[in-house]
């Protein structure tokens, strides 16, 4: 798997949310390669080919990163900062996912360079729609940086 | 007196002349001896006479001088007397002035004493006020400390509330999303395995998850209001009602006839007022939905420097006995089976109107509709 092309990187600590999102992509017929990582540290290791992902071809970049804000160890904002600070990864679109619009870090997320900000809806149909719309836009409509 | 002297001197000269003539004639006529004797006698008499006359003249001259002296002296006396009289007059005047001045001084002394007495009183007053000021300063310092303490506590509470509402929205919604999501996935992906009752139960799970989601959203809206400041602007209430109705009609179907008279414009926070109208109109539609001909009226009036807006319906109404429960959080006068709801809508309305320094109240009768009022202070535009 290490050298196959990855299109969607989902960084989400909640297994239920991840499962719902993965199912939603499947339901929306977005069967692109998706990798799910459970925390920020793992995500950075993946992106920069270190630790567990030592030797991964880091030029194989995801077309979009879905990033949950509230995570243990390293939270979403820190992951976002690291991604946007590195020449290799700063052009990858990052969609911030969170449970509510009450999050105090919305403004910070945008100022750190988040490309989009999505509140995960409680309703499964809505959630499915949001996720498939996201995939459709970032994978099919958006022209990623070369 | 001078005239007399003149006359005397004339008569004296004449006597002298006559005597000389007579002597010479007699001398001619008399015998030598006799004649000589007589002549000597005569001469003596003449000499005596002329001496006497001369003396008289001298005396007269002296008298004249003395007279003149006397006249001069009396003149001087008169002058002095006049001077004295003048001086006396001046003295009298001065004396009178002195009396007045004395009186004035006495009066001034009295005044000074009075003032001194007043100053003593004023000093006492000042000392007292100084004492009071000190007391007040101490009190102010104390109350400032209290205010600081309170502000600190309010800040802490607000921070608590903020983190609470965040964790409510995040931590409660996450499991709710899972419950709802998995229930739906079960229904969709295991459709063939579940019988009708199983599917109904799954439906109930999802219904309740959805309700809880709405409740969390309402609660968050309510708690957000506490922190959010208001931005006032001129609000065209007619347009606002139009916007709200368009939104409501998009969301659900209803058969209510909605009458809206020409409403007074308000000065308020547009978004918050929109929330108020949305809640009141949604309620009116909801609680009149079971009537054959639901009717909703929106009105406004000016009264006692306030603008009063009302939304009335001919719906389920309420018992006035429970009127004070209407605006409480989570307080409901109807069961969920009758009319669904979370019991937060009117609490939000009240909170928004209170933030605008207005009031909310309601009138109703069970089964005969309800009217909800809110007032906004009429802000007079400052002249410039």
TrEMBL record, chain A:
Keywords: Phosphoprotein. PANTHER family: RESPONSE REGULATOR RCP1-RELATED, TWO-COMPONENT SYSTEM REGULATORY PROTEIN. The modification 4-aspartylphosphate is found at residue 68. The keyword Phosphoprotein applies. InterPro entries: CheY-like_superfamily, Sig_transdc_resp-reg_receiver, TCS_response_regulator. It comes from Gillisia limnaea (strain DSM 15749 / LMG 21470 / R-8282). GO terms for biological process: phosphorelay signal transduction system. This is Response regulator receiver protein. Transmembrane segments: none annotated. Residues 7-135 form the Response regulatory domain. The lineage of its organism: Bacteria, Pseudomonadati, Bacteroidota, Flavobacteriia, Flavobacteriales. PROSITE patterns: RESPONSE_REGULATORY. It comes from the Bacteria.
From TrEMBL, chain B:
PANTHER family: BACTERIOPHYTOCHROME, TWO-COMPONENT HISTIDINE KINASE. The keyword Transferase applies. Its EC number is 2.7.13.3. It catalyses: ATP + protein L-histidine = ADP + protein N-phospho-L-histidine. One of its GO terms (molecular function) is protein kinase activator activity. It comes from Gillisia limnaea (strain DSM 15749 / LMG 21470 / R-8282). GO terms for biological process: osmosensory signaling via phosphorelay pathway. This is histidine kinase. Keywords: Kinase, Phosphoprotein, Transferase. Residues 167-380 form the Histidine kinase domain. Gene3D superfamilies: 1.10.287.130, Histidine kinase-like ATPase, C-terminal domain. It holds the Pfam family HATPase_c. It is an enzyme of class 2 (transferase). The keyword Transcription regulation does not apply.
């Amino acid at each position: 798997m290490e050298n196959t092309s990855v299109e969607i990187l989902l960084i989400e600590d909640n297994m239920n949310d991840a499962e719902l999102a993965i199912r939603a992509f499947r339901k929306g017929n977005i069967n692109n390669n998706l990798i799910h990582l459970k925390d920020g540290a793992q995500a950075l290791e993946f992106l920069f080919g270190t630790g567990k992902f030592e030797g991964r071809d880091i030029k194989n970049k995801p077309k979009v990163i879905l990033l949950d804000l509230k995570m243990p160890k390293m939270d979403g904002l820190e992951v976002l900062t690291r991604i946007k600070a590195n020449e290799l990864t700063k052009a990858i679109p990052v969609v911030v996912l969170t449970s509510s619009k009450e999050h105090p870090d919305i403004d910070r997320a945008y100022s750190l360079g988040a490309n989009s900000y999505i509140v995960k809806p409680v309703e499964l149909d809505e959630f499915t729609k949001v996720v498939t719309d996201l995939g459709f836009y970032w994978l099919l409509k958006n022209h990623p940086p070369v | 007196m001078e005239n007399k002297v003149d006359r005397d001197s004339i008569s004296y000269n004449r006597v002298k002349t006559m005597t000389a003539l007579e002597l010479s004639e007699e001398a001619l006529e008399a015998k030598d001896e006799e004649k000589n004797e007589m002549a000597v006698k005569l001469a003596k008499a003449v000499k005596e006479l002329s001496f006497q006359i001369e003396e008289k003249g001298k005396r007269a001259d002296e008298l004249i001088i003395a007279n003149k002296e006397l006249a001069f002296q009396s003149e001087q006396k008169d002058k002095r007397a006049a001077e004295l009289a003048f001086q006396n007059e001046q003295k009298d005047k001065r004396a009178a002035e002195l009396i007045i001045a004395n009186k004035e001084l006495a009066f001034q002394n009295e005044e000074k004493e009075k003032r001194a007495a007043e100053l003593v009183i004023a000093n006492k007053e000042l000392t007292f006020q100084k004492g009071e000021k000190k007391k007040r300063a101490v009190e102010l310092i104390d109350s400032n400390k209290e205010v600081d303490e309170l502000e600190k506590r309010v800040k802490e509470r607000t921070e608590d509330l903020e983190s609470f509402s965040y964790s409510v929205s995040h931590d409660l919604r996450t499991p709710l999303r899972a419950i709802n999501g998995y229930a739906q996935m079960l229904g969709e992906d295991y459709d063939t395995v579940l019988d009708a009752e199983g599917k109904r139960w799954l439906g109930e799970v999802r219904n309740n998850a959805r309700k809880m989601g709405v409740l969390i959203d309402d609660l968050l809206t309510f708690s957000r209001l506490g922190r959010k400041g208001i931005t006032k602007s001129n609000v065209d209430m007619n347009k606002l009602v139009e916007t709200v109705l368009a939104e409501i009609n998009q969301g659900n179907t209803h058969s209510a006839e909605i009458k809206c008279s020409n409403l007074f414009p308000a000065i308020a926070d547009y978004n918050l007022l929109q929330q108020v109208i949305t809640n009141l109109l949604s309620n009116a539609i909801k609680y009149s939905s079971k009537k054959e001909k639901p009717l909703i009226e929106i009105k406004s009036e000016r009264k006692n420097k306030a603008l009063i807006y009302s939304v009335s319906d001919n719906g389920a109404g309420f018992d006035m006995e429970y009127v004070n429960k209407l605006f409480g959080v989570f307080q409901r006068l109807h069961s969920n089976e009758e009319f669904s709801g979370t019991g937060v809508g009117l609490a939000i309305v009240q909170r928004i109107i209170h933030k605008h320094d207005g009031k909310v109240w309601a009138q109703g009768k069970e089964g005969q509709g309800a009217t909800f009022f809110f007032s906004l202070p009429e802000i007079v535009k400052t002249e410039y």
